[in-house]
Specification:
TIM Barrel; Alpha-Beta Plaits; nine-stranded mixed beta sheet
Length: 300
């Protein structure tokens, strides 16, 4: 039976496509954005998240762990992550929520069932958004899920980095109402520096989708010290103007939620800014961009 590795299902979302959405977060991503908001979506396998401030030092996790991952003393709780196979026994044993599993396998029918329970709230425009991570890394499951949802007359959006196999986008296109397509940087060298990959595959998939009639939203994270510059914003507007089916440009302000998630997973997010941009400054960029393009510019 086909199953997908999912790290979260977020219900009643209003920022990831039209209407009220059920967001399905696919685990695994080919990019390593320095500011990543969802570092739990990097790897395609389950992981243990450790919330230090909830640990009471009871040692229940150490007692059930078959590989000695947890070392609990009076002064500290150390995790030897290199030994961990993510069996989940420690999370099951933790009564205080200090240990949680990130990632589990779902079937198409399981997720369709969850969406079915939310259908009442979707109205005419809502539905399910496949996001991540990168849904197209699990293309077979993403396509099967999108097809099944459409059979149930539930609308489907895909949020994607664009960094995936063309065949995956070809396969899923017939079942998707709207692609939420990330534009993280418009300078090639800076894109490589901050995400770890170049733009050629991304731009190629975006243009192919546009040529084949895909309705697209350009999703643009605004990261101070990275892409907060006029040239970048003008390039976004020029890109939107060169495509026929871009319906919206979304400006997504940086937030620091990824920093805490990374700590709980024993990972490092290189971009360490903790304060968000002032809303007024972002609104100024929104107004300027609205003068540079006919495509609606929305501040999320």
């Amino acid at each position: 039976m086909l199953r997908g590795m999912i790290f979260n299902i977020q219900r009643f979302s209003v920022h990831d496509g039209p209407g009220i959405r059920t967001n399905v977060f696919f685990k695994g991503c080919p990019l390593r954005c320095a500011w990543c908001h969802n570092p739990e979506g990097w790897t395609a396998r389950p992981e243990v998240s450790f919330l230090q401030n909830r640990c009471v030092g009871c040692g229940a996790c150490a007692a059930v762990c078959p590989r000695g991952v947890h070392e609990v003393t009076e002064d500290a709780h150390l995790l030897h992550r290199e030994r961990c196979t993510a069996c989940g026994k420690c999370a099951d044993a933790c009564a205080f929520g200090a240990l949680e599993m990130q990632g589990r396998l779902y079937t198409v029918e399981e997720i369709t069932g969850i969406a079915g329970r939310d259908r009442l709230f979707y109205g005419e425009n809502g539905g399910v958004t496949l996001t991540g991570g990168e849904p197209m890394l699990q293309a077979d499951f993403a396509v099967a899920l999108a097809k099944r949802l459409r059979e149930e007359k539930i609308g489907v959006c895909v949020e994607t980095s664009g960094y995936g196999d063309r065949e995956a986008y070809q396969a899923i296109l017939p079942y998707i109402d709207r692609f939420l397509f990330d534009i993280k940087e418009t300078d090639e060298a800076e894109h490589v520096r901050w995400t770890g990959v170049g733009m050629e595959i991304i731009r190629g998939n975006l243009r192919w989708l546009d040529e084949n009639g895909a309705v697209t939203v350009l999703r643009c994270p605004i990261i101070p010290g990275v892409n907060l510059r006029e040239e970048h914003f003008r390039e976004i507007c020029a890109l939107a103007g060169s495509l026929r089916h871009v319906c919206e440009i979304d400006l997504e302000p940086y937030h620091a939620m990824g920093l805490g998630k990374a700590v709980r997973l024993g990972k490092e997010v290189p971009y360490q800014r903790k304060e968000a941009l002032e809303r007024e400054e972002l609104a100024d960029w929104q107004r300027k961009m609205s003068e540079w393009t006919h495509v609606p510019v929305v501040l999320q």
